[in-house]
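Journal club side-thread
Mid-discussion, someone asked how the predicted structure for our own chain would compare to the paper's figures. Pasting it here so we can look after the session.
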Amino acid sequence: MSLAQALVTVAVPSFRQGRFLDQALSSLFAQDVPVEVFVLDGGSDDGTLAVLERWKDRLAGWRSHADGGQSEAINEGIAMGRAPYVCWLNSDDWLLPQGLSRLVAALEQAPGAALAYGRTWDWMEATGRRRHSLVLPFSEWAMARVNVISQPGTLMRRSAWEAVGGVDASLHMAMDYDLWWRLYRLAGPPVRVPEVVAVNRVHGQTKTNTQRRRHYQEAMAVVRKYHGKVPLKWWLAQPYAVWWRSWRGAAGE
């Protein structure tokens, strides 16, 4: 498939997640819209290169070397493509059948919107159980209190992505939250799709589980930057999220 035929550019940032990468790529190439997929690996020393070798004929591009982190890799991958819609899929997540086509349809029906988002599952790696991710109807009031958008279930217009400059490469935890705010300021509320379109894998090595304090610090700074103040909810919820949930890990409770 030539790059000119692709409808969606997908960046897949990855580092030492070879055990998950095959499922992520399988889900992308099973979509019913044409995609161009770029894998940006941070120099993994696990089984990642073997997975990339199996998929190399279908990938639009890939590389494996040390980089500046996830945000930088996402920007790099999307800049490589030319499709009118863009997204990223972390290598430990996966899309459900027709996930991208549902999001594309939502944006085509709302030409002024910059972002579409659908519902997602949280898949608990430790238990094999799943639950609905926290995905809510969009409002600034709600967005200032919690990230109402689940990143694996999102799709953006390339024009909007380029207008806001992609993800902020200085952020390593809340880069998606920051991006949703900037797209909202650019083009107004995003479009919400009612169907479940993707799966977020929850496991013990995710950055959210291993760096909760940093995650909260970045997220609260994002809220202050775009909303002007940090609602009380953040100060009340932080001890639970940082200490209690870190102790419980990714048990799926």
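Post-session note: The first strand starts at residue 8 and ends at 14.
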